[in-house]
Write a structure and sequence with these properties.
Layout (H helix, E strand, L loop, with lengths): L1 H21 L5 H5 L5 H31 L2 E6 L7 E2 L2 E6 L4 H12 L4 H16 L4 H7 L18 H7 L4 H4 E6 L2 E2 L2 H4 L1 E5 L2 E6 L17 E2 L7 E6 L3 E6 L14 E4 L3 E14 L8 H4 L1 E2 L15 H17 L17 H9 L1 H5 L1 E2 L10 E2 L4 E2 L2 E13 L5 E7 L6 E6 L3 H15 L4 H27 L3
Parallel strand pairs: 12-18, 12-19, 13-16, 14-15
Antiparallel strand pairs: 1-19, 2-8, 3-7, 3-10, 4-5, 4-9, 6-7, 9-18, 10-11, 12-17
Helix pairs in contact: 1-15, 3-14, 4-5, 5-7, 6-12
Length: 470
């Protein structure tokens, strides 16, 4: 047994010396070369050790930089050939349309008494807009009485269908639409969009129904040929109009300065300064946690919308919190897969927790019950805009006019560049290893050859030779 160990040790020393004498790695041959003084050997051992340590530290630094500092923002000013997209416009009906609601109630309940229709319309208004839930509480309270409707008539379930049915159709909201002075079919391009505040109609938004079909997308690019884009809308009803990026959706937390509560006989004119944020295609190869943004298709784990955006993430976050608190989904938005929409009891739960649900707090805010903390990333490609001016004028016409115009074509945009990609990392590591230790891919092959392939081959060859000896 001892003889076997001794033979194995001698063989290992022989292989190590053979590798050091013939390897392309710098300095190793001076350690094992015969007829060298021990001081010289120690000197080369120290030099090789320092080179290896330096190489390791530089390679580690290159790795950390690639992982943590791979992305940078730069200002792009090559604006002459840009095609700049226009913002998205979302239009909500503001208040119940009495004619639509009355027709729905009469057809559903087959009752035409004015008192019944009016009180039921007020109940539907509470369901559709969730502002004051007086009649909803009466429907649930055994001690309270309703004036004209029976409690059995109160819609207990399928409230999402109620919300959808009492909203005005597109043709009742829009009178006229123009882009850069050219009229277009409003209801062809303003598509339905379901939000946490109920259904709306949105233009130039990736989250709308059928937005993947090119024939329902209006060409709203602005460049040197077209000039700054201008949108003109004439609205027949009182509405709320949201100004958004094309990948965002309206939420309870949309900035108030980006919302217009439009009433009839008022002309609203808004001038915008648009700034685009884009990402180079190689940004998709960087880990999401490292680039700290998401592209629209990176929507794993989200159910309400097909594309990712910061606001869509907020809606998903709020949906999950509502499910935790009330075990149902707000009937203003569609339920996610198997989740149920809230009934009247659920709506009371929503009202009870309204302030908490609609308030966003920072993740580091530890106040109990202050609001919802949502860890949502920004989108990798966004269209930022700033209100330069907002004007309102009274006019005699019995409808609302909204004009939104870019004040000028943008002269700068921000680009997310990749400073260090995988190829750069390999080059940096390879250059460092080659400079300090003389290493390369062939050095790895040498190690495998001298310490694995060659010993195995010699062992097999010697065993074959012994077995054939007479």
């Amino acid at each position: 047994m001892a003889m076997h160990k001794c033979a194995y040790l001698k063989m290992s020393i022989y292989i190590l010396k053979d590798f050091c004498n013939n390897s392309s790695i710098h300095g190793l041959k001076f350690i094992t070369k015969p007829r060298r003084h021990w001081i010289e050997r120690v000197f080369w051992v120290v030099c090789c050790a320092l080179s290896w340590c330096g190489s390791f530290l530089l390679i580690l630094s290159a790795w950390e930089n690639n992982q943590n500092n791979a992305v940078s923002f730069v200002a792009d000013t090559t604006y002459l050939d840009w095609n700049t997209p226009f913002i998205s416009i979302a239009v909500f009906q503001h208040g119940l349309n009495s004619e639509v609601a009355n027709s729905y109630i009469r057809n559903k309940f087959k009752k035409h008494e004015d008192g019944f229709v009016e009180e039921m319309r007020r109940l539907f208004d509470e369901i559709a807009f969730q502002e004051h839930l007086t009649l909803i509480h009466k429907c649930l309270d055994n001690t309270s009485k309703l004036n004209f409707i029976e409690k059995s008539d109160c819609p207990r379930t399928n409230l999402f269908d109620v919300v959808q049915s009492v909203r005005s159709p597109c043709k009742d909201i829009f009178r006229n639409c123009q882009w850069n002075g050219n009229e277009f079919d409003c209801c062809k391009y303003f598509l339905p969009l379901q939000t946490e505040m109920g259904p709306c109609y949105a233009l130039n938004n990736i989250h709308t129904q059928n937005s993947s079909k090119s024939e329902v997308l209006l060409d709203m690019m602005s460049n040197r040929t077209t000039g700054p884009g201008k949108l003109l809308l004439e609205l027949a009803l009182n509405t709320k109009v949201y100004y958004l990026s094309k990948d965002e959706v309206p939420t309870f937390n949309t900035l108030s300065e980006n919302v217009i509560t439009a009433t009839r006989k008022i002309f609203y004119k808004t001038l915008l300064q648009v700034t685009e944020v884009i990402s180079v295609p190689d940004a998709r190869s960087i880990n999401i946690d490292k680039r700290q943004c998401k592209f629209p298709e990176e929507n794993t784990g989200f159910y309400l919308y097909n594309w990712y955006s910061y606001s869509a993430c907020l809606v998903e976050c709020r949906r999950r919190e509502v499910m935790r608190l009330c075990n149902c989904t707000n009937p203003l938005m569609p339920a996610a897969r198997t989740e149920k929409n809230c009934d009247l009891d659920g709506m009371v739960c929503l009202e009870k927790n309204k302030d908490y649900i609609n308030t966003l707090i920072n993740p580091w805010d530890k106040r109990e019950g202050a609001g919802i903390s949502c860890t949502c990333m920004q989108g990798c490609e966004e269209l930022g805009f700033r209100m330069v001016s907002k004007e309102e004028e009274r006019e005699p016409r019995n409808y609302t006019t909204i004009e939104v115009q870019m004040v000028q074509l943008p002269t700068v945009r921000f680009k997310r560049n990749i400073v260090r990609n995988k190829v750069d990392m390999v080059v940096n590591m390879g250059g460092t290893a080659g400079l300090l230790v003389g290493g390369s891919i062939l050095s790895v092959v040498e190690i495998l050859y001298y310490f694995l392939v060659r010993p195995v081959w010699e062992a097999v060859h010697s065993h074959t030779s012994v077995s054939h000896t007479p």
